[in-house]
Amino acid sequence: MLDLARERDWVVLGDNLAVLPTLPDESVQLIYIDPPFNTGGVQRRRTLRTTPSADGDRVGFHGLRYTTVETARHAYLDVFDDYLGYLEPRLVEARRLLTASGTIYVHVDQREAAYVKLLLDGVFGRDAFLNEIIWAYDYGGRARDRWPAKHDTILVYVRTPGGHFFDQDAIERIPYMAPNLVTPEKAARGKLPTDVWWHTIVPTNGREKTGYPNQKPEGVVRRVVSASSRPGDRVLDFFAGSGTTGAVARALGRRFVLVDCNPDAVDIISRRIPDVEVVTA
């Protein structure tokens, strides 16, 4: 069992279903998970670096030539015969681990959202449902035979209905879409976000980019951590991926436990977040 009494941040390489039962009851204030979306394939991401070269394989602006080199390649399997059967025991453990005032955010896509909500109703209780957050973005491919899918769903449940922690004052405000319709004072202050979040994906050349598939932007996770935990609280992400939850928690003064079974993910996390303790389950 991890010694959560120690003032340390932890990254665990291992199967989360084996790791979660070793953690003590009511030991985390917030859980954010972004489980595989059950797309039916392998999620891959290549990282490229382009540099000027006289004999390069690409021609750019003003006829200058460039060479493109692959610097990293990451992948994970995203196929489940019984997706809900895979998630259920992990969600049962998650509920046990939450404090009485704790909250869980489960990030899924439009294909699985309805089924996962029914599963969460069964595990946490329908009265524990707090929000369905829609994260909308506008980037990537465009389907020609249907409305392009440009949103994810984040399902929010609490451990104790009516007794959860939520700090509205800690949430970063956003600009009004029609600032001329409110007073100058309100326009300058901005408004609180609703349950529809417009936020770009991680930019290709952005500071956050790690090269890991389906990396979530820090801005989305920051809103979650700010609202549903206090400085010094413990945050858990047992589908840690590129470690965005840990990076945000560290920046906001929270402790964290990250779990992932992919060695590539743990390697990225250990390089992304300094002075983090990595253990193997």
Strand content: 25-35%
Task: Give average pLDDT, whole number.
Answer: 87
Model regions low in confidence, pLDDT < 50 over at least 5 residues: 43-48, 72-78
- Judging from the principal axes of the Cα atoms, what is the shape? globular
**Content-based structural category:** alpha/beta
Radius of gyration using CA atoms only? 20 Å
CATH topology descriptor of the largest domain = Rossmann fold
Distance between the termini: 9 Å
Total number of helical segments? Answer: 7
Helix content: 10-25%
Structurally, how many domains make up the residues?
Answer: 2
Structure report:
There is one protein chain. By secondary structure, the protein is an alpha/beta fold. It folds into 2 domains: 10-38 and 80-280, 3-Layer(aba) Sandwich (Rossmann fold); 44-75, no CATH class. The chain has 7 helices and 12 strands. A hairpin with a 5-residue loop joins strand 4 (58-59) and strand 5. The chain starts with 9 loop residues before the first strand and ends with a strand.
Provide a short characterization of the protein structure.
The protein is α/β, with parallel strands linked by helices and about 280 residues long.
Which descriptors would you attach to this protein?
single chain; 281 residues; alpha/beta; Rossmann fold; three-stranded antiparallel beta sheet; 12 strands; globular
